[in-house]
Amino acid sequence: MCLCLFLLSSVYASDLDTQREQYKQAKNALKAGRTSEFQQLKKELTDYPLYPYLLYNEALKRISSLSPEDATRLKSQLSGSVLADEFFDRWLDTQARRKRWQVYVDHFKPTTDAEKQCKYLRALFRLGYQDKALAGVPELWLVGISQPKECDPIFDVWISRGNLTTDIAWNRLQLAVQERSTTLARYLLRFFPRAEQPTARLLYDVYRRPSIVRNVNRFPDNVRGQYAFSFGLLRYARDEASKALELWQKHENDFDFDEQLAHRTENELAFWAAREGIVISKVNPNFTYETIERIADTAIAKGEWNVAYEWLDAVEDTERYRFKWRYWFAKSLQETGVDGARELLEELARARTYYGFLAANEIEVPLKMNARDQNELEQQSSEFLADIRIARIFELYELGEAENAKEEWSWLLPNLEDDEAKHWIPYQIGQIGHPNHAIQAAFRADAFDLVETRFPVLYVDEFNRHTERAGIDLTVLLALARQESAFNPKAISPVGARGLMQLMPATARRTARNIRVPQPSLVGLLYAPTNIQIGTYHFRELLDEFDEHKVLAYAAYNAGSHRVEQWIKGASGMDTIAWIETIPFYETRNYVKNVLAFQQVYSVLLDTPTPILAPNEKTIP
Questions:
Q1: Model confidence over 241-289: pLDDT tens digits?
Q2: C-alpha 242: how far from its chain's center?
Q3: Phi, psi for 503 (deg, rounded to 5)
Q4: Which residues contact 230 (CB under 8 A, 6 or more apart)?
Q5: Which pLDDT score is estimated for 376?
């Protein structure tokens, strides 16, 4: 949709077309150094939504010479745009590079950016505010990761003046091993005096080789020794949960643990034991919700419904709003013959969520989409575009500057008070052909009832070319593409997965060989028809491998077949929905739930009702 059809009522389309051309000319003039031409064009564009971008780019040309007064005034002129803070940050960085420390200190604003904070402390120190500078170091030093090199000089001064105590070094060592920062943890050992080296080294060693905890006598019965033993047990429990729990039960009373450490250790050991498949019958209502949930998951997977009910019933009232708890508590009521299951499931079935769909399937009622009528939003376009901040977003899209537009709405949505406007923005982004941005914007705006915006029906012709031959329903492929890339054909993940179906290049090449099509290049995988074809047949391969069991194929698509094969060992005959809760990887567990839920949404949107599980998928083969 052309933006000129619905722009500000006070600006006619022809005027806007003229302004766009002038804006492009102004950008070219600035880039080419034609100052007079740029200034003349800029004067004619003061009411144009992208006028701040001209001011911003002009200021960057002379940022090192801008006075504090000029910078502050320009920041004010840029207010209402993401550019305001972005410009001022760049100007401040310039002051630091030019060693204008007083200016930097006078205009510095608190930030969570460690590099900027350290730069500020160094500026204070250089200006003679040494006590104030050094007082700010502990908060930055006491973290579990290595800080930027910008921090090293002020850290070195702080340490050389005797501020680093053994207690502080121990606290940071604890944080480092918790964050798995091996290099930092090894570096910190140098700060312990000879008498305290053994315990510090013991914590480092048990972090590296958790099985050391089996030699209990190595751990002294003091505060640090107790922490090292507890930490080592919890590390050991990730691979040997039953052995770690046995060690704890055998040696807990050999140490004078404080109550808090003992409780935390017992709680986490119970979590890992349950994850290993151990059913813990004795209820401890003081465990965290996450541990109680994991114990209940295991009991449910093992079919021990009385145990599951008792644990779920121990959950505090403040936690019972969760969709997952409500579903499984209702199931436990149902399985143990306690009244109240139907009422819980009926209430839950009204929600457009994975557990809401499970509940609807359980009591055999239609799925609820609770979708907003998006036509209402279309009728309000002129009203919302009267806000220059919103008009700026869509003008950037119109000019092909989609990433700048994304930065603007990412900044604006959390600061926008009008909920209707917050919902209209993602709706309109979808309308003008940026579905992946629309999906992200809807999430950022909490606009969850914009169902058609959040679940666009795209690339149908490309998918349908392969659905019949591959024997895969269109709703499955749409759900996968929605989960994998939010329909962004150019998406590239941090690990190198590419395109609409997020294919790893090696996987794509192997599947291409199997189906006898040309080997795709890295660029070729960003071409939607190619990606869809190979992605569809890769999923077909997974279905073949797992006996047409979509849930296992979904899990394998995300985590790999070899992992899924490990996860289903000993699970034959287990209820599939219960098995999903036992998937060890949080990412894969939620991935599978999302795709199952998304398929249900698409089955409603395409009016092709589909059960959440086929008969052959209800149990693990």
A1: 999 999 999 999 999 999 999 999 999 999 999 999 999 999 999 999 9
A2: 32
A3: -90, 135
A4: 257, 261, 264, 265
A5: 86
Tell me the per-residue pLDDT of 11-21, one tens digit each, with 9 for 90 and over: 445 689 999 99
Angle formed at CA 360 by CA 356 and CA 363, multiple of 5 degrees: 135
Catalytic annotation present for 484: yes
- Residue 131 contacts by C-beta under 8 Å, 6 or more apart in sequence? none
Q: Give residue 151's Cα distance to chain centre.
A: 28
CA distance 198 to 209: 16
SS3 for 146?
Answer: coil
**pTM beyond 0.90:** yes
Q: Which of 484, 541, 581, 617 is catalytic?
A: 484
Identity of the amino acid at 369:
M
Distance CA 132, CA 153 (A): 15
As given in the structure block, the two tokens for residue 319 are 């936690």
Predicted confidence (pLDDT) per residue in 448-502, tens digit: 999 999 999 999 999 999 999 999 999 999 999 999 999 999 999 999 999 999 9
Question: What one-character DSSP code corresponds to residue 145?
Answer: S
Six-digit token string for 369? 């989409």
- CA atoms of 57 and 118, how far apart (whole Å): 28
Orientation of helix 35-43 relative to helix 13-32, angle to 10°? 160
How many angstroms separate the CA atoms of 249 and 247, rounded?
6
> Which candidate, 171, 255, 262, places its Cα nearest to that of 216?
255
Q: If phi over 0 gives left and psi between -120 and 50 gives alpha, with beta otherwise, what is residue 400? A: left
Residues 6 or more apart whose Cβ sits within 8 Å of residue 604: 367, 369
Q: How many residues does the chain have?
A: 621
3-class SS string, 289-306: HHHHHHHHHHHHHCCCHH
Which single residue is written with the structure tokens 């997020």?
Answer: 502
Q: In the predicted model, what is the mean pLDDT of the chain?
A: 96
Residue 3 has pLDDT above 70, yes or no: no
Half-sphere exposure of 16 (CA within 13 A, CB side): 21
**What are the DSSP calls for 528-590, one per residue?**
HHHHHHHHHHHHHHHHHHTTT-HHHHHHHHHH-HHHHHHHTTT-TT-BHHHHHTT-S-HHHHH
